[in-house]
Amino acid sequence: MTGGRPAMRKQYVAIAAFAAVYLLLGLLVRNSYYQLIMTLVLLWGTMGLSWNMLSGYSGMISFGHAAFFGLGGYTMTIAFVKFGISPWLGIPLGMLVGVAAGIVIGVPTFRLRGHYFALSMLAYPLAMLYVFEWLGYQEVTLPMMREAPALYAQFNDQRAYMAIALVLMVACMVVSLHVERSRFGMSLLAIKQNEPAAEAAGVNALRWKLLAIMLSAAMAAAAGALYAVVLLVVTPQSMFGVLASAQALIVALFGGVGVYWGPVIGAAVLVPLAETLHAELGHIVPGIQGVVYGLAIIGIILLAPDGIYWRIRDRLVARQAAPGKDVLPPARAAGPVPAAIASRTDAGSPKSGAIDAAPRTRGRPLLELDGVMRTFGGLKAVDGLSLSVAEGEIHGIIGPNGAGKTTLFNVINGFLPANAGSIRFAGAELLGLKPHRVCRRGIGRTFQVVRAFARMSVLENVVIGAYVGAPTDRDAERLAFDALDRVGLAGDRAYAIAGGLTINQLRLMELARALAPRPRLLLLDETLAGLAHEELEEMLGIIRQVNREGVTIVIIEHTMHAMVKLADHFSVLDHGKLIASGPPAEVVRSAAVIEAYLGKKWVDRAQHPVA
Amino acid sequence: MLSIRSLSVAYGGLQALRDVSLEVARGQFVAVVGSNGAGKSTLFKTISGTVAPFSGEIAYNNRNLLSVSPAERAQLGIAHVPEGRQVFASMTVMENLEMGAYTRNGRSRWAQLLPTILELFPVLADRRDQLAGTLSGGEQQMLAIGRGLASAPELLMLDEPSMGLAPAVVDLIFERIQQVHREHGLTILLVEQRVAEALEACDRGYVLETGRVVLEGSHDALMADARVRRAYLGM
Amino acid sequence: MTDWQWAIVDLFQALAAGLLVGGTYGLMCVGLGIIFGVMRVVNFAQGDFMMVGMYIAYYLVTGFGVLAFLGPYAAPIVGAVLAGPIVFVVGWLLHRFLIAHVTGARVVSAEAEGHYTQIILTLGVALVLANGGLILFGSQPLSVQTPLSRQSWEIGPVFLNQARSVSFLIAVLVAMGLYMFLKRSNLGKALRAAADNPIAAAYVGVDVDRAHRLAFGLGVGITAVAGGLIASTQSFQPYIGFDFVIVMYAGVVLGGMGSILGAFWGGLTIGLVQQMSTLVLPYQLQNTAIFVVFLLIIFLRPQGMFGRVWERT
């Protein structure tokens, strides 16, 4: 995202310069074997870009990119051999098949996480490998077309293949660049760093992941098809084998994850190295290529786990800019918030009077829980809970450790399904909605342990939250600046990397992220815990101000000090049940509450004071 | 026996403990109370070695504990009964107790200790071959304490034994803890949210608030102090 | 006999073959189960350690003939069992000097990124082993020669290949020995405790890092024994490991992730699935059947896999 047009132009110039130099170099090389290597660099670079599109940006590590590679290659080959379809058509056809496979694989597999995703991705190409062997496609050779070879993408001059591969890879680089700088790439990055937080901030994770795997599969299929065109032969092992998947992953990881130059660098270093060794020593040591890739990945994981690109960039950045290591351009003034967006807030009735005024009549209910039940095994974490949050109030939910408060938030915002009950927000049922949908309805939340996108800047973190409320990326940025301003993180601090913030700053950032799309209701999970006195006062001030601007707030806390001053209404939970409810001053005097907090013995003692 | 001086710990980006000092004498029952987020669990994790402090000292029997590995700390006689029980869910009740006796001391005194533990918590004897994961919360808490006792500890550290348990069970568990302390003279360090039970049982107490010790004193002094009540209820 | 009777004989034949193959798969899965259970690390190279076990058995028995003095019947068995301690040492050292850099007590509880570095590191190890195997051993398919592989016991109309039967028995014995070790010995219990709850294990005095080293060595060693046993029943080449990685994970997932002994039953089931699939599918699609079963297990039993992601804050 950010960076704007001039920065984009710079990237285009860099890509064009790279392509020109590569082309020139390729034209100068006379040895046809070296020409082939130069083509292979581009093909594996494309595979690396394909892997990076899915796994580099979204963090879902794929060990099965050979599935798309192989499908592309075999589709083109079979279309050519069986039906006489020219590779010029066969390659796009292969891409279509790849995209279809991407959807079929993605829909079920994206439900899995971590190891399980990686392993099941490994299974797909291996399953296909045996199917293609069984179908009798052990070794399929492309027929030589003597008449009109160019029509069938056959050239005497190896350099023609190199030029085609260069066009393909540059196209993939440009696509990757645009993904990186858009809402799409930012959302993937957010998913990679913290998927629950991204969902809670309104990012539809499944949609973006599917889009990523479709793009990624198209790239891999194109690379596979072109690979078959260049080598004129396909075998199940070379197309679907583990080495094909591994090479895609390794060039990307080696060169640099999550940036489109990474796979290009990785391929440019590793492919010539492996191929040359193979040519020189292949007859003595047949597996040398695999060993090179294996050692390369072991080395890179141990020495520079993010890849060469980032290692070099970190060096350069450290040397260039000692004062601030901002990745982003300097601050720009936040523009006015468009009226269409701003109006969302006006629905809330602005709160009148000072916060510590006498008890007011409560507004009409905004959030209504009725008999909400959530169990974990035998434990009733939320046990038939009914409560109502009035529009415009600050509603404190308190209770001892393990009372079910965070579980309740997780049920409200869609992380956990409820076993029974109903939750209505502004009259409409919430239960059954995914977190990003709940967010879209106008409910923002923060987390007990701050879920930041640690490697993004503060501004980028907040922009991701703003996407839900903004039609364009530019509007999202405006909303983000506005939210940062409201929590007091505007100015230089907006460009700091989130990973380096103090806990208090992180909480403010998370608050801004939840505020950015202008929600009607904010769920704050222990936003006050562990804050020192001055920080606490600052946070209280911000929460009050946000509330005064019309946002209804539900806040969870263990400790009551600050809450007594902050909240208009208390609901006290113990063992998943509501044990008291009402104005704070009354609630803290109730025997049930004192017992829940201080124990039965304390109550006994208070009632029968010993002289 | 245990002496903590000016301990500061940052944990998960949060300054969890600030300049905490605390003393436990042999045979004493010391309670640390405070609401959640006050840093109680972090204090325990630092003592048993799963969290490293950035400054301060912990001495145990005049030995610098910070240079000792977590596994070795258990061998030195420190038994940590963690928050949320953390029993070995896939192992039987007996196997859990045997794991408690994994330390050198525990193994050599196993024959004497086992009957004592089963007497203390008869329900564990009834369920000796049941998988720990299938026990109720209260039973798991008893098992976790039994496991701690099986290591023949010099210092028993209990982290929120009341968490998530019904009041009657909490009463029973506190009774048993006091019984162990009284009858066997075991040194106990207890962290609790339920301040009344904890302070009533202890010889000496500390009140922790946002990572700092805000109050300390004897049992009687703390029970009478209105500030304890204020720390909890804000009034 | 009528067609129906033949069909039933085929069924029993496939069942018997599945059981016999499944026994060795079960042992293989137990090896992986120990590693995953204790370390929560996906070891991609597990199949390649199995391959190393196969070649060790081959070279001890047929290649160098060190064990020739034991005679043609005992040598393959002893060779397979000896692969265990040799690979144990290799695994121990590999963990000590390489894998420990990205795993350990701290990483177990860490978030996803740590896992990725581990799985990718083990992918590197797998590539080096498989291709290093190609360099050292060549691509020629080999098998450990035993006269048993050409002999069968007949139980009614069902044939039991003797080499497979003996492999099955040894696999079951080794698995039972391991079961006793885990169930009875202090070290075994410590391993189970570390697998069950590493934090609590550290609190009762288990050195979790040492448990990891032991688990890794033991895990690859056990799988290597299974490899050595399989080596006398089928031919192999250095790339065989990649196929078996999925077989092993299918078994481990089926048996319940983290359950060391459940992995044996999982592996046994996978063996049955593989052999039974030949009743309805062409012979070449045996492995595809396993992969499909693997995917189905993963999709249909998600609770053990990501059910608790939200809670783990």
Provide tags for this entry.
heterotrimer; A: 611 residues; alpha/beta; six-stranded mixed β-sheet; 25 helices; elongated; B: alpha/beta; four-stranded antiparallel β-sheet; 10 strands; 41% helix; globular
Verbal overview:
The complex is a heterotrimer of chains A (611), B (235) and C (313). Chain A has 611 residues and is an alpha/beta fold. Helices cover 57% and strands 11% of the residues of chain A. In chain A, the strands form three sheets. A six-stranded mixed sheet of chain A has the order 8-9-10-5-11-12, with helices on both faces. In chain A, strands 4-3-6-7 form a four-stranded antiparallel sheet, covered by helices on one side. Chain A has a two-stranded antiparallel ribbon with strand order 1-2. In chain A, helix 21 (533-548) links the parallel strand 9 and strand 10. Chain A is elongated. Residues 322-359 of chain A have low confidence and may be disordered. Chain B is α/β, with parallel strands linked by helices. In chain B, 41% of the residues lie in helices and 26% in strands. Chain B has eleven helices and ten strands. Chain B has helices at 40-48, 70-75, 93-100, 104-108, 110-120, 122-126, 137-150, 167-184, 195-201, 219-224, 226-233, and strands at 2-11, 14-24, 29-33, 55-60, 63-64, 78-81, 155-159, 187-192, 204-209, 212-218. Chain B has a six-stranded mixed sheet, sandwiched between helices. A four-stranded antiparallel sheet of chain B has the order 2-1-4-5, covered by helices on one side. In chain B, strand 7 (155-159), helix 8 (167-184) and strand 8 form a beta-alpha-beta unit. The longest helix of chain B has 18 residues, at 167-184. In chain B, 55% of the residues are buried. Helix content of chain C is 73%, strand content 3%. Chain C has helices at residues 3-39, 46-63, 71-97, 105-108, 112-137, 162-184, 186-196, 198-203, 208-230, 240-255, 262-280, 286-300, 303-306; strands at 152-155, 158-161. Residues 105-112 and 302-313 of chain C have low confidence and may be disordered. Chain C has a two-stranded antiparallel sheet. Chain C is an all-alpha fold and 313 residues long. In chain C, helix 2 (46-63) runs antiparallel to helix 3 (71-97) and helix 6 (162-184) packs antiparallel against helix 9 (208-230). Chain B binds chain C through residues 48-50, 69-72, 74-75, 79-82, 86-91, 95, 98-100, 102-103, 147, 151, and chain C through 186, 189-190, 192-193, 195-197, 199-208, 258-259.
